[in-house]
Amino acid sequence: MSVPDDRPVGIGIVGYGLMGRVHAYAYRAIPVYYHGQPAPVRLVGVCDVDATRAKEGVTEAGFAFGTRRVEDLVAHDDIHVIDVCTPNRFHAEAVEAALRAGKHVYCEKPLAFDLPEARRLAQLAVRAGVTHQVVSEYRFFPAMLRARELIADNFAGRIFHVRGAYLHSGYVDPDRPLEWRLRREVIGGGVLMDLGPHLLDLMRWLAGNVESVCALTETFIRERRTPEDPTRRLPVEVEDAIIVLMRFTSGALGTAELSRVATGAEDELRLELHGSNGALGFNLMDPNWLLAYDRTAPPDRRGYTKLATVQYYPPPAAMPSPKFTLGWIRSHVHSQFSFLDAVVHHRSASPSFEDAVRVHELIEACYRSARERRWIGLDEMPEP
Ligand SMILES: NC(=O)c1ccc[n+]([C@@H]2O[C@H](COP(=O)([O-])OP(=O)(O)OC[C@H]3O[C@@H](n4cnc5c(N)ncnc54)[C@H](O)[C@@H]3O)[C@@H](O)[C@H]2O)c1
């Protein structure tokens, strides 16, 4: 669906919870951050099954209308982009409705509830000929953009090790109820479906495809109360933590550790990469810096350097000046800018739904490995 030159890009958001609010904020901020580029943006419609939330989208974020029905968004001629921010189980119905109506789609991670559904959505998106992007905002941190550039310039040389961890602690409290992120039938898995898409996408983006995985999962708190009735306890069917060994197609070795019970962690995404020429390191809790070690420097000059990546976004980013410190929401602003830029200029966006399918394949391979207690090759997950 082309956006006519004389009209703003119209946005419809499905799901106005945490991420619906973040995305709405980012769309409003884009014209200011990018000096009016890539086009004027208008928040047209917000849909939430909870009518109060849909109303909040109107009064707080400034959407023109709110609704409980996704059909009202996809039928609207002034909406060009459908942005999906519902819990995982409900992504597909909104994405499919949007694609049927020829809308461009920006969808929260993970793209789908499981691998077959992800494959189906990616095929539908390609057939619809629209621009599609899955959210992976950590790609849009200046430190990660710089890391990718350095790797492409052979700064690291041949990559030996890729070490990733994404650690949260929100589920250490045994009184935390069994909300949707802990219910398999809504989220599709545990921490691997929750934090995994972020880390796995980054690891693939920086170090290439994974050939095989060997994974170990654990659920430490095996029963939790339901949100509706504190006296009713149900078994927890998803993992709190997972550790994955990986072999990359390049021959590099990797590890990924994901946990929602890592006491002391807040939003701890760590990446370390070691190669024949150099090494890189990043910690999301210290996002203004990329650590870089140049092994080709004279021995007495070697050591990790803190590269100040701060807010060095490429033009047309115009605000704020790069020296100011970075926050998480800024990466959503750049991710959404990148998507809208692709929509306006009729380009494909990245990461696309096909990239999301590669991440779903990895997730599925990890779960199969943990279940069957053996290494699983990604070639054991052939397209149907
Ligand atoms: N990119 C990130 O950093 C990030 C962070 C958190 C969550 N997420 C992803 O964003 C998505 C939403 O998570 P959240 O934290 O915003 O959840 P949330 O529970 O805060 O909000 C979800 C909203 O969707 C609404 N909803 C549920 N089913 C719906 C349906 N069928 N149609 C319309 N509205 C519906 C709910 O009423 C709620 O308002 C998930 O897929 C999650 O994985 C991404």
Short description:
With 384 residues, the chain is of the alpha/beta class. The protein has eleven helices and 17 strands.
Report on the structure:
The chain is α/β, with parallel strands linked by helices and 384 residues long. Helices cover 32% and strands 24% of the residues. The chain contains 11 helices and 17 strands. Helix 4 runs parallel beside helix 5. It is globular, with a radius of gyration of 21 Å. 47% of the residues are buried. Residues 14-20, 47-50, 53, 85-88, 90, 108-109, 135, 137 line the site of nicotinamide-adenine-dinucleotide.
Secondary structure topology:
Layout: E1 9-14, H1 18-33, E2 41-47, H2 51-61, E3 65-67, H3 70-74, E4 81-84, H4 91-100, E5 104-107, H5 115-128, E6 132-134, H6 142-152, E7 159-167, H7 184-187, H8 191-194, H9 196-207, E8 210-218, E9 223-225, E10 233-235, E11 241-248, E12 253-259, E13 268-275, E14 278-283, E15 289-294, E16 304-308, H10 328-344, H11 353-372, E17 376-377
Bound molecules: nicotinamide-adenine-dinucleotide.
**Main sheet makeup:** 9 strands, mixed
Content of β-strand = 15-25%
Strand runs, count? 17
In quaternary terms, these chains amount to single chain
Mean model confidence by pLDDT: 97
Structural domain tally: 2
CATH class of the largest domain, named Alpha Beta
Query: Compounds present?
Result: nicotinamide-adenine-dinucleotide
* CATH homologous superfamily identity of the largest domain: Dihydrodipicolinate Reductase, domain 2
Which structural category fits the helices and strands?
alpha/beta
Q: What is the terminal-to-terminal distance? A: 30 Å
Count of helix runs? 11
Please state the CA-atom Rg, rounded to the nearest Å.
21 Å
Overall form:
globular
Share of residues in helices: 25-40%
Question: Architecture of the largest domain in CATH?
Answer: 2-Layer Sandwich
Note poorly predicted spans.
none
What is the CATH T-level topology of the largest domain?
Dihydrodipicolinate Reductase, domain 2
Give the ordered list of helices and strands.
Answer: EHEHEHEHEHEHEHHHEEEEEEEEEHHE
Strands of the largest sheet, in order across it?
A: 16-15-14-13-7-12-11-8-17
